[in-house]
Amino acid sequence: MYDDQRVKIDKVRFQAWIAAEVAKSSQNRVAKELGTTHATINRYVHGKVDAVTGRQMNAIAAYRGESVQDTLRLFALPLPEVQPATGDLGDRLATLEEKYEQLLAEVELLKDERELLATEVGNLKEFVEVLIEEFNEAKRAKGSKNKI
């Protein structure tokens, strides 16, 4: 197992095991034996971990005195089943081409919408500039009235 590979784990089963190990000794001792920190063990105990790295899984397997495969069978979530491809290749290709055409049409609509939105943004900028100018003129006019 690669050190940087992430393995999704059964949180309940893993939490129960790590809590039992901590109950036998302490979080610091378990952390030292697993080559990790007290904070990481605390996250394990409280079920705040969904996955572990390959390095962590290797350390857990060594701690348990098992092979990595046995530890994976115990704690890792099963991979989702992949449905085999069925049907005629020509039918699947036609379906994919149809989806592709739909996506191209959606892209064109999105481009048109983006252009309309850009125009609206430009109009709003001009409107805000006019409002700012009117506000500044009103402010200047009010300032001159107070001085008279």
Describe this structure as you would to a colleague.
With 148 residues, this protein is mostly helical. Helices cover 73% and strands 4% of the residues. The protein is built from six helices and two strands, in the order E-H-H-H-E-H-H-H. The protein has helices at residues 11-24, 27-34, 38-45, 54-64, 68-75, 89-147; strands at residues 6-8, 51-53. A two-stranded antiparallel sheet has the order 1-2. Helix 4 packs across helix 5 (68-75). It is flat. It starts with 5 loop residues before the first strand and ends with a helix.
Terminus-to-terminus distance: 85 Å
Hey, roughly how much beta strand do the residues contain?
A: under 5%
Question: Which structural class is indicated by helix and strand composition?
Answer: mainly alpha
**Helical percentage:** over 70%
Unreliable stretches = none
Query: Could you describe the largest sheet, including whether it forms a barrel?
Result: 2 strands, antiparallel
Mean pLDDT: 86
Instruction: Give the overall shape.
Output: flat
Number of E strands = 2
Rg on CA atoms, Å = 31 Å
Strand order in the sheet with the most strands: 1-2
Count, helices: 6
SSE run: EHHHEHHH
Oligomerization category of the chains in this entry: single chain
Key terms:
flat, mainly alpha, 6 helices, two-stranded antiparallel sheet, single chain
In short:
The chain is mainly alpha-helical. It has helices spanning 11-24, 27-34, 38-45, 54-64, 68-75, 89-147, and strands at 6-8, 51-53. The radius of gyration is 31 Å and the shape is flat.
